[in-house]
Write a structure and sequence with these properties.
Length: 233
C-alpha cells in the first residue's frame, strides 16, 4: 500500500524528541522510528555490523549514511508488513545531514509517501547538557527518564516493563559535546532545507514535558487532517 504520511522530529540531543515521540505517536496514528534505538537494538548482537556501528556510536560520531539508510529502510519495510494500516512514521534522529535528507526524499518518492511536517524542538544548549547528564533509559523497551525531571516511580526501574535503567554509553561529557557540535554543523542547517518547503513547525521545547506535548499536538493535528498534506487512509 502506498501513500504513507510521515512526520520528522528535529532538535538537538536532549531536546525531548524521544520523550515526546513516546507520547504523541499513537494518538496521531504514527509509529515512532528512532535510528538511535534501531542501532542500540542492533548492537546487542555479536556480528561485524554490530561492531562497526559500535565503533562510531560510542565516540558520538555519525554511523555512515549507507549503513544508516539500510537500517531505516529495513524498519520501514517491516512496518509495511506488520502494520498495513499505519498512517506514517514519526522519524526521530533521521535525517541528520544534507545527504540523508536527499536520500530520504528519493526513497519516499519511490514509495509514493510524503513528509507531512517537520517538528522543530528548540532548547538552549545549557539546558540540554543538564538534561543529558541526568538521562536514564530502559535497555529493554527504550523508555526515557531523567533522575530529576522525569524520575521513574521506583528508583532505578522502568515504569513500563520493570527492567533496570541504565545511562547511555554515549552520554559522557565528551560524547555529548561532540554530538551537539555535529548537530549544529550538520543537522540544524536542514531546517532551512525544509523551511523552504513550508514544512517546519517551530515548538518551544524549553517548557514542562506536558506543555511541550500539547504544543506539538496542537500544531500537528490540523496538518495531519489536511488532505492536501496527507491523504487519509
Ligand atoms: P532526545 O531524544 O531529543 O535526545 P530525550 O527525550 O531523550 O531527548 O530527553 C533528554 C532528557 O531530558 C531525558 O532524560 C528526558 O527525561 C529529559 N526531558 C525531556 N523533555 C524534558 C522537558 N520538557 N523538561 C525537562 N526534562 C526533559
Ligand atoms: P542522540 O540524538 O543523542 O545522538 P540517538 O539515540 O538519536 O542519540 O543516536 C545515537 C547514535 O546513533 C548517534 O550518536 C549516532 O552514532 C547513531 N545515529 C543515530 N541516528 C543516526 C543517523 N541518522 N545517521 C548516523 N548515525 C546515527
Ligand atoms: Zn522498559
Amino acid at each position: 500500500m502506498a501513500g504513507r504520511c510521515h512526520v520528522i522530529l528535529i532538535g538537538p540531543q536532549g531536546s525531548g524528541k524521544g520523550t515526546q515521540a513516546a507520547r504523541i505517536a499513537a494518538p496521531l496514528g504514527l509509529v515512532h522510528v528512532a535510528t538511535g534505538d534501531l542501532f542500540r537494538q542492533l548492537m546487542t548482537r555479536d556480528d561485524d555490523l554490530a561492531r562497526e556501528v559500535r565503533s562510531y556510536y560510542d565516540r558520538g560520531e555519525l554511523v555512515p549514511d549507507d549503513v544508516t539508510l539500510r537500517v531505516l529502510l529495513s524498519r520501514l519495510d517491516e512496518l509495511e508488513r506488520a502494520m498495513p494500516n499505519y498512517r506514517g512514521a514519526l522519524l526521530d534522529g533521521y535525517p541528520r545531514n544534507r545527504s540523508q535528507a536527499e536520500a530520504l526524499d528519493r526513497v519516499l518518492q519511490d514509495r509514493g509517501d510524503t513528509i507531512a511536517a517537520v517538528v522543530h524542538l528548540a532548547v538552549p544548549r545549557a539546558v540540554l547538557i543538564e538534561r543529558l547528564s541526568g538521562r536514564l533509559i530502559c535497555p529493554q523497551c527504550g523508555a526515557t527518564y531523567h533522575r530529576v525531571f522525569a524520575p521513574p516511580r521506583v528508583e532505578g526501574l522502568c515504569d513500563q516493563c520493570g527492567a533496570a535503567l541504565v545511562q547511555r554509553t554515549d552520554d559522557t561529557p565528551e560524547a555529548i559535546a561532540r554530538r551537539l557540535d555535529t548537530y549544529e554543523q550538520q543537522t540544524a542547517p536542514l531546517l532551512e532545507y525544509y523551511r523552504q518547503r513550508g514544512l517546519v513547525l517551530d515548538i518551544d521545547g524549553n517548557q514542562p514535558i506536558d506543555e511541550v506535548t500539547q504544543a506539538i499536538l496542537s500544531a500537528l493535528e490540523p496538518v495531519l487532517g489536511d488532505p492536501a498534506r496527507c491523504r487519509s487512509s
